[in-house]
UniProtKB/TrEMBL annotation:
The keyword rRNA processing applies. It is found in: Cytoplasm; Nucleus, Nucleolus. Belongs to the C1D family. Its main location: cytoplasm. PANTHER family: NUCLEAR NUCLEIC ACID-BINDING PROTEIN C1D (PTHR15341:SF3), SUN-COR STEROID HORMONE RECEPTOR CO-REPRESSOR (PTHR15341). This is Nuclear nucleic acid-binding protein C1D. GO terms for biological process: maturation of 5.8S rRNA; regulation of gene expression. Keywords: Cytoplasm, DNA-binding, Nucleus, RNA-binding, rRNA processing. GO terms for cellular component: cytoplasm; exosome (RNase complex); nucleolus. GO terms for molecular function: DNA binding; RNA binding. InterPro entries: Exosome-assoc_fac/DNA_repair, Sas10/Utp3/C1D. The lineage of its organism: Eukaryota, Metazoa, Chordata, Craniata, Vertebrata.
Amino acid sequence: MAGEEINEDYPVEIHEYLSAFENSIGAVDETLKTMMSVSRNELLQKLDPLEQAKVDLVSAYTLNSMFWVYLATQGVNPKEHPVKQELERIRVYMNRVKEITDKKKAGKLDRGAASRFVKNALWKPKPRNASKVANKGKSKS
């Protein structure tokens, strides 16, 4: 960054932030070029339905987020624009997909094994005559 020329159209204090923003825009541009190089149908054919939903939701959320930033740069308050409701709607669907994914990852309970484990772990009192038999054997020795 030392070799960059500082423009006098904006305060020097924000130069570092603007440089980081420019780098981020470049990274987004490269990612979009990579994504656009593969057709959507070709990409989705390789994925299961849940993964397809994730790709669609992330794409929609990203585009709406970029529109949010665009509105802010144009002086429009995005909080008062319908894009806010759209982002919330997408976020609700993303949470639903996350719940489904978490349910798939959750362990299944084997009730038979659990009941056997609990039965074997519980304390069982010894029968009364078993203790007398054990004591008789010890006293004779």
